[in-house]
Amino acid sequence: MKLDNIYKEEKKSAVAKLSEIIITMASRPSGLIGLSILIFHIILAFISPYIAPHDFKAIDPTLMLQAPSAEYWFGTDDLGRDVFTRTILGGRTALTITFFGSLIALLWGGLLGIFCGLVGGKIDDVVMRIVDAFLSIPWILAMLLIVSLLGTSTEVLIPALGFFYGKGIVRVARAATHDVIAKDFIVSAKARGHSNFSIIWNEIIPNVRDAILVEGAMRWSWMLLGFSSLSFLGFGVSPPTPDWGLMISNARGLMSFAYWAVIAPIVGLSSLIIGINLTADAFAKALGIDRSTKAPV
Amino acid sequence: MLFLIIKRILLGFITLFIVSIITFVGTEVLPGDACTTYLERQAFGEQLEACYRRLGLNIPAYERYVSWALNAIQGDFGYSLSGEMPIKEVLGPRIKNSLVLASAAIFIGIPIALILGIITALWRDKLPDVAISTVTIFAMTIPEFISATLLILIIAIWLEWLPGIVIVPTDVSFLELLPNIILPVVAIAMIMTAHMARMVRSSVIQVMASEYVQMAILKGVPYWKMVFKHVLPNALLPAINVVALTIAWLLGGVVVTEVVFNYPGLGRLVIESISNRDLPTVQALAIILASIYVSINLLADLLTLMLNPRLKTLQIRK
After folding, report:
1. Could you tell me the residue ranges of all domains in chain B?
2. Subunit contact A274:B23, Cβ cutoff 8 A
3. What is the per-residue pLDDT for A123?
4. Interface pTM (ipTM) of the complex?
5. Contact assignment for B290 to A133 by CB distance below 8 Å
6. Which residues of A touch B19 (CB under 8 A)?
7. What CATH architecture is A20-293?
């Protein structure tokens, strides 16, 4: 009866717990900056189609490479398109694709890692060898190959990014599971005769969830970096969709006399990545997880 | 000890074996084969037949894998479709150029990273730490192509100090290459230094909080003597592995940096061969880059083992 009460109390406080975490995150200056940048970008992604002053794909040869003015705040690009409009719209695709990509990475990487950590033995050995092999192929080579053979549609990009950024989570989830698995409550759950599924769901996941979530948040910023690199190389979003990586690579050749067309997307992309990074860092600290000695793999 | 080293090396080879299978199966499973992908619309009749014969695509896949793998071990990766010559000859100068770039970045990056990491750790949360840490966070989170583009814009276009892109043939001599590689080296070293400095920082902070350092302070060991004798040797050891992983991770980033600066290295070859849909070269590159990754990690593992007497005895006891 008493145990039941404790359990209920924890369930009720899920929202309270979340707001507590957010308050802890915002109490550090870096966390506050990160959170505000991220929230700004998310709001911008939702409202930008309604506040954009011009049409993002309207080409006008008479307006080519105009310097910033009252009409065109950030100037125009080589096709006479408004850079301000394209910049505020430029994060939407990247944010959406990488958000769902990280969710997929989190799910498959986390579950496989927990499974391997729990089962151990031969299966674990084989899976970890394969994960190691995938880790040693540069992500960019694999991604480029997939994209060049299957195309750059969203249905290809999201699962491909999710797959390639999930393999690192396998390791983290497995290590976190190893830490938990020797604890008494797992042994007693086994002794009570619970199934593997029940042990994973009720005993392991609540204990490794924090570590996996932090890892997923970090992957989000790396995935954004990877995705914009793909766009920059011409293997990501296809024109005329406004995208920061693509805008930078287009405007780069002309930046000796039209630097505004390259500065605006640079500021947009850098601030978003830094925002996610600082937020993930503050998130880790609020949950009491030390990531400072981890390599970016 | 010897057993351990042999085991590590063997594991490395197993990983590479799996990589070779993954790349082979990957190019097999994805739509189109090397010839149809390369020839695209001209993939029919005589031309396709000739291409199949040249690459030996008309024999079963597993036989092809065995002969490819056996040749690859001997350094023969087959024939480049776009370069119209053996892949071995395409790779040679590219590997040399990338090696120049990477080693220059490492030699500049490691000392700076050590100094910055130690400064930020010893003056933790004071002004030097806050200032340097802010810069390192910026340097490591901003994508490679952005920092490289900004470098070109500021140093090459606005200040006109150095050439912005590399316009030299692939097989240029080292001295001719030198003035061209300064900006790419700075771009790569910046990110690498930032990563390493942060790891050195946290490693030093951890050791500073340990009991034997507290003991040394209580004994009255002079501050700098304590730092150099007790803290650094112990703090830098665990950093080796992380540094290796960082270098290996940068293999992906170097691709982008080389494209931005038009630098004729392995990274640009990755993009070129994928744009040209030259699958045999892509396969060769995958296995080579994976071998670099595996050997850097192996080297770091062995180095830590050899430098850390505690680990040695621990492993023997096990």
Report:
1. 2-73, 94-317
2. no
3. 86
4. 0.78
5. yes
6. 133, 136-137
7. Orthogonal Bundle (1.10)
